[in-house]
Amino acid sequence: MEAAAAAAGVQLGSSKPQIATQAEMAEARVPLAYRDQCAHLLIPLNKCRVAEYYLPWKCEPERHAYEKCQYELVMERMLQMQKIREAQEAKAKGGVSIGLIPAATAKLA
């Protein structure tokens, strides 16, 4: 994957910085699978959930911010993968490919 990304001129990884430190995430007992660029939003969300006894109508602003961050990361990864696929197809065929992401959404990056 990394060789294909380098050949396509796509930088792997997220453009978002890692805000929460490993020590903060360990102290907040964030599972390893959730220690990404959105962990700084997950920490206050989990604290709110515990304080509010996981009531679904509580902590909505925190949950919305966390889910938006996760969505943006997924869209960024999809855009990176689309660029890699387009470069591979162009190299193999020399033709035009149809993108998986609409042009309006792809302009987020």
From TrEMBL:
Similarity section: Belongs to the complex I NDUFB7 subunit family.
Major location category of this protein: mitochondrion
Subcellular compartments: Mitochondrion inner membrane; Mitochondrion intermembrane space
Database matches in InterPro entries: NDUB7
Membrane association type: Peripheral membrane protein
Keywords assigned: Disulfide bond, Electron transport, Membrane, Mitochondrion, Mitochondrion inner membrane, Respiratory chain, Transport
Any single Gene Ontology cellular-component annotation: mitochondrial intermembrane space
Function: Accessory subunit of the mitochondrial membrane respiratory chain NADH dehydrogenase (Complex I), that is believed not to be involved in catalysis. Complex I functions in the transfer of electrons from NADH to the respiratory chain. The immediate electron acceptor for the enzyme is believed to be ubiquinone.
Top-rank taxon, per record: Eukaryota
PANTHER family: NADH DEHYDROGENASE [UBIQUINONE] 1 BETA SUBCOMPLEX SUBUNIT 7, NADH:UBIQUINONE OXIDOREDUCTASE B18-LIKE SUBUNIT
This protein's name: NADH dehydrogenase [ubiquinone] 1 beta subcomplex subunit 7
